[in-house]
Design brief:
Layout lengths: L2 H28 L3 H27 L6 H19 L3 H25 L4 H30 L3
Length: 150
Amino acid sequence: MNQQQIINRLNWFYSLELNQVDLYMTQSKRVGDIYFSKVFERAAYIEQQHVDNIAEKIKELGSKPTILGDVMAPILGKISGNIVSTAGILPMLKANILLEQKAISDYKDFILKAGKDPELFNLLWSNLIDEDLHVSWFSRKVQELEEKPH
C-alpha cells in the first residue's frame, strides 16, 4: 500500500472507532445494570484511545483525520446506541459482537496489507486485540444470559 492508501484506511478506522465511542457511551447511559453500564463506559474509553492513536498516526503521515468522520461517526454512534439499547441487553450485546467482529476482520486485512512500518503494525495489532477482548466479554455475557433460567 502506498502512503495515501494507508491514510485512507486509517481514516476508515478513525471513523469506525469514533462511532464505537459514542455507541458504547450511549449504551452505558441507557442500560439499567450498573455492571453493564461500567463495562460499556470502559469499552468507550478503550475505543477513544484507538481514536487518539489513529489520529496521531494520520498526523505523523502528514495528513489530518477525516472531518466527515469527526461529524458523522459520533452521530451514527449515538443513534445506533439509542436504537439498539431499546431492544434489551441480549440483542445489544449481539449487535456489539457483530460490530467488533467487523472491526477485527478489517484490522486483520489491513495488517496484511499495511507494509513494513513497525509503529503502524503495533498500533493495528493492539487495536485488534482490544476488539477481540470486547468480543470475548460480550460473547461470554450472551452465553451466560442465554443459559440463565427465565
